[in-house]
Amino acid sequence: MKKTVFMLFQPTALVLIVVLWATIPADWLKVAWFPTAISIVTLLLVQTLEFLNERHAGWRMNIRELLTDLFYMILFYTVIGKLETWLFDDPLLSAKESLGISAAWATQLPFVAQVALTLLVFELGQYWLHRLMHNSFLWWTHAPHHHITQLNAVKGLVGNPLELLLISIGVTGLLDVPLNATFCAFNILTAVAAFAHANVRFDPPRWYAYVFTTIETHSLHHRVGFLDTRCNYANVLILLDHLFSTYREGEATVVGQDELRRLSIAEQFLFPLRPLMAWRRARSASTPG
Ligand SMILES: [Zn+2]
Ligand SMILES: [Zn+2]
User: Per the confidence metrics, is the pTM higher than 0.85?
Assistant: First the structure.
């Protein structure tokens, strides 16, 4: 019975999220904090599942991890969210208006298609950005996320602030879909990213694991060794990894980088400066004193 409930949990949750946003009273959409509150509730609900059906004892939540996860959750939904709106969303909408860009055809689509389109557009951008992060200097912003030594529901938000800002950027603002479809797509993104980092034994149906990222495929992305992380890039739609030939089957129980040392929040913040600090150290060592 418990096995079946957990097996069906992820697909059922996604259906319920679609029903919630399809039927939400229009007045609630005007409440600025409402979508954020739903995202936070989603993350915390997924975290509580760990206490009901744990995946690995080595990833068990403790007070240090919990405080770190809560710190990043607050940072993401306050400072990072505001910065992203100010630096990217607002200029994008102004450009859309002044250039007369329109995607009015999207308003004619059924609700589920509007949600799927928003999800796909955002995920396509995220897939290529994430792949670029693993194959360029952007790794220095993304590496702190890979230095985490255990996976839990909110860990998708643990990383360097620069990376958190980059992973918030998308062009879904160009799509003319109603607000509830946009909020629904982002609620699904939050839920699947939480499932994919959660220390929970779901063991979902095969069709679900073919389309959506799971803890199995995402833990493999988190395994030790920089080159071994170059697979399963999709945060939410693992279907894209199948499509672009970066999919790898399996799962990892040991996650992290280098000597598996957990970074402090200060180290996560300063991580992108490491190449500069290494260069300065090398320069002063080579300078005759
Ligand atoms: Zn990565
Ligand atoms: Zn991750």
Answer: yes
